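Researcher: Predict the fold of Cytochrome c.
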Amino acid sequence: MRHALMLSVLGSCALLSGCGQGGGEKSAEPGPAPAAEHEPTDAEKAAVLASLPAPYNTADIDNGKAKFAMCRSCHTIVEGGANLTGPNLHGVFGRKAGALDNYKYSEAVKNAGFVWDAEHLDKWLAEPRTFLPGTKMTFAGLKDEKDRIDLIAFLKVETGYKAP
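Model: Structure tokens for Cytochrome c follow.
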């Protein structure tokens, strides 16, 4: 019952996520239905963090979560989460830039020609507009290097990252 209710609520959220319309990047179609997947425990998340290469393995996940609060109005991170003004970030590491189905990217992102990894994401987060001119992302950037490390580590822990 709880699972069915959660799926219903998540499905409704996907349909109501039109707040980002007008930004030109949001898809008119909701993302795929959330999968019935095991929610990682705190111990499993700690193991993912410990497995990351330096400097991410010693990041402050709570700070990363706090920094992600700036991103939540445009991005979801759960598997099957809706695309908002920005795309869902679950599985972003290892995904080709501009390749998420059901999301309308800017030409700059579609033609970026790289796969998302910590190095590319760090440069993107530092200065999105100069890293990839032509992006429609309005975020001004996260200047503090430690905050970017913490945010990237948080995203790796929370978005289904699997070490190569």
